[in-house]
Amino acid sequence: MSGSRVVALGHHQPERVLTNADLEKMVDTNDEWIRQRTGISTRRIAAPTETVADMASEAGAKALAASGLAPSDIGQVIVATCSAIDRSPSTAARVAARLSIPSAVVFDLNNACAGFCTALATADHTIRAGAAQHALVIGAEKMSDLVDWTDRSSCILLGDGAGAAVVSASPEAQIGPATWGSDPTRANAVRLVDDWQPRFAQEGQAVFRWATSELPAIAAQACARAGIEVTDLAAVVTHQANLRIIEAMTKRLGLRDDVVIARDVVESGNTSAASVPLALSKMAERGELPSGRPVLLFAFGGGLSWAGQVITAP
Ligand code: UT7
To answer: Is the Cβ–Cβ distance between 12 and 95 less than 8 Å?
Structure first.
């Protein structure tokens, strides 16, 4: 056994759709500004009683069912989240209980929006080390709990949801080496402010400039580490923060014209650690993910942190 691969995907989004027109009634904003500056048209908002663990469990159950594995096969459950307010037991422990996964190591991982790609690399390393054969890796967020609904600069951005992947040992390494790191000089550029209750805040323009200037080279490094050229990529799923960042970054990467690019931010908004697996799973569900071909996953956010890798599409 020399590596691991993603064998199945799943996702969950809450029922409630919050449109730009809805937001126009809540804060001083308008559909044109939101679409021009962010590309976002809608986002999903969880019900007051719907928790991060609920969404993570729904997504995880779908991925597990699609994998054909039994709950007892899963040796590790990692949930990437920064919005699970009820922190103990961990969200991963709650997922294991819900899905009757009997004896896995379970833990949450907080690397903000880069959490899922970080968790995927962690599962890959665990499997390579022989400490598990199969892992359930989930990104799940209820960002609506962290939104200041009076702040027009941030409340229009965020949404809720979850995406999951089952990762299994494989003779062929189909999860490439992680490209990951952080820039401590910008540690507070995206953060949770905790004065009256935790709420999302960011230096939007500074993050935008950093993302569009720094990320293409870092993403290209993920391809180099996987031993492929950027032009070999069949699909790109980056953190869904802003359509303008996605367009600028993918343009600068110099991709082939037929590459499938995730643009789930348009309908789901920014779901932090859930955004990459959610977009990836939705692509697979629509039949857009080119099976057996290289897909770049890449995310960035609070820290400022980044993480990404090239995987082979399941
Ligand atoms: O997931 C974590 C990683 N985060 C990111 O990737 C975020 C990166 N940054 C961004 O995506 C963009 O900076 C934002 C979408 C957050 C903001 O877009 P922007 O083009 O940077 O706008 P801005 O903050 O510079 O604001 C421009 C104007 C301001 O008005 P004045 O000062 O020019 O009169 C804002 O007050 O737009 C105003 N504004 C709004 N107007 C209507 C800010 N929010 C809104 C709004 N509706 N919702």
So the answer is: no
Does the active-site annotation cover 223?
no
Is omega for the bond preceding 89 within 30 degrees of 0, making it cis?
yes
pTM over 0.90: yes
101-132 tens-digit pLDDT? 999 999 999 999 999 999 999 999 999 999 99
* Whole-angstrom distance, CA of residue 88 vs CA of residue 108: 10
Weakest-pLDDT range from 120-129, 198-207, 273-282: 198-207
Rounded Cα gap, residues 268 and 278, in angstroms: 9
Mean residue pLDDT across the chain:
96
Is 239 labeled as catalytic in the residue annotation? yes
8-state DSSP, 100: T
Q: Is 20 annotated as catalytic?
A: no
Q: Indicate whether residue 37 lines ligand 1 (CB < 6 A).
A: yes
Q: Residue with the nearest Cα to atom 48 of ligand 1?
A: 152
Neighbouring-strand partners of residue 140: 162
Answer whether 29 contacts ligand 1 (Cβ < 6 A). yes
Domains of the chain: 3-170 (3.40.47.10), 179-312 (3.40.47.10)
